[in-house]
Structure formats: C-alpha cells, structure tokens
Sequence to fold (243 residues):
Amino acid sequence: MKIVCGKDYKEMSRKAANIISAQIILKENCVLGLATGSTPIGTYDQLVEWYEKGDLDFSQVSTLNLDEYRGLAADHPQSYRYFMNNQLFKRVNIDISRTHVPDGLEPDADKACADYNNIIHEMGGIDLQLLGLGHNGHIGFNEPGIAFETETHCVDLTETTMKANKRFFEGDEQVPSQAYTMGIKTIMQAKKILVVVSGEDKADIVKRAFAGPVTPEVPASVLQLHNDVTIIGDEAALSKILA
Fold:
C-alpha cells in the first residue's frame, strides 16, 4: 500500500488525476472503475483540463461505476449516472455506450445485480478502480458488516449514510434507502486501486481503515490485502496516519 500526501485538495486531485491519466496513456482501451461523491470532482476536473489541452484521449476508454441509487432514473439530478454525465462523460470524448452504471430503475434487484455482474465479467474486469472513503469506512455502498466475498448486490443504506445524503434531496422522504453497488470481491479483483480522501473529518476513518485490523466492520480495511493500492489524501485527511 502506497500513501501519497498532497498539501491540499487541489494538489491531491492533481496527483490522483496523474495516476488515472497514466493508465489511459499506457492502455488506451483500459477499463476504469469510477466513483461519485464530492471528493473525486477535483480529479475529474483535472482530467477534463488535460483532455481540453489535447493531452488525453478517452475515445477507447470504458468505464464501470461503483453504484447507483435504487429507484432513481438516469436523468434524475441526484442519480449517479447524471453525476457522471455532467462531471466527466459529457466533457470529454468518451463513447457514452462504453460507460456503465447499475440500472437504478430495474425493479428486480436480483436481475439488476446479475446484469451488472455480467457486464463487468464481459469487459474482463477493471484495470484501475477509483474509490472514495465513507465516514464509516464504506467503499461504494458496501456498508459495515457486509461480507468481503460479495459481488454486485442491493444494499439497505445505513441511517448514517442516508443522513449524509439528505442535503442533496428536497425532503427526507425522497432520500433513497437502497442502492445497487459493486461488491467488495469485485473491487478487490481490480488490477489497481486508487483511493482519494480529503478533509480533517476523514482522518479518524483513514487511520482505522489503513492502520487498523482488517474487518468487515470497516469495509475499506480489506484494501490492505490488495497488492496495488495507492491512497492519495490531503494533509488533513492523512494527519493521523502519517503523524
């Protein structure tokens, strides 16, 4: 496990974008596993900037997103498909048919998960998986206590996660209570994993996840067992692990 510190969010984002851009340059038809949330936005902005300068070509890249809210359409402003379209896909020359997000409107949970697993397997797995880190250690929507051997599955979101999501929705009743998420087994099968983390409020969970015991109660702790993981954080987020 490699830990890289940027002095602030901007530098952290640039360092993360460097790793992703290197992957694209070395393998133009690579499969990128992508994440949503506020932390990766700076990384996506940096990738877009380099694309606009002519330094990156996304035309042969394929993507697989970690998760999607169950019940939200792709054009819903809070869906993860909508997020990815606006934060990255519409801003670069990627073929939208090569971008994949779980189908939030598939009512049959088993079918939704099986379909996404099939897509992942047909694409030959993930070359580089980008991850954020939840305050409770979740990666994707793999909440504490979920078995490490799971593939794509439907999860009941914890009260903590739903509370964190409330600010994005107009009313409490609109906050989704379930999501389809890539499983920990699938994440761990990625050839490379890149974790981005920012802010002092993440310092405690960074220490628990990457300097504590490997346990399903801290899902991200399993990343300690992967042979190619890079953690990139700002000074605040890494303050308790680099001290």
About this structure: The helical segments are 9-26, 41-52, 80-87, 109-122, 159-165, 184-188, 203-211. The CA atoms of residues 74 and 81 lie 5 Å apart. The chain has seven helices and ten strands.
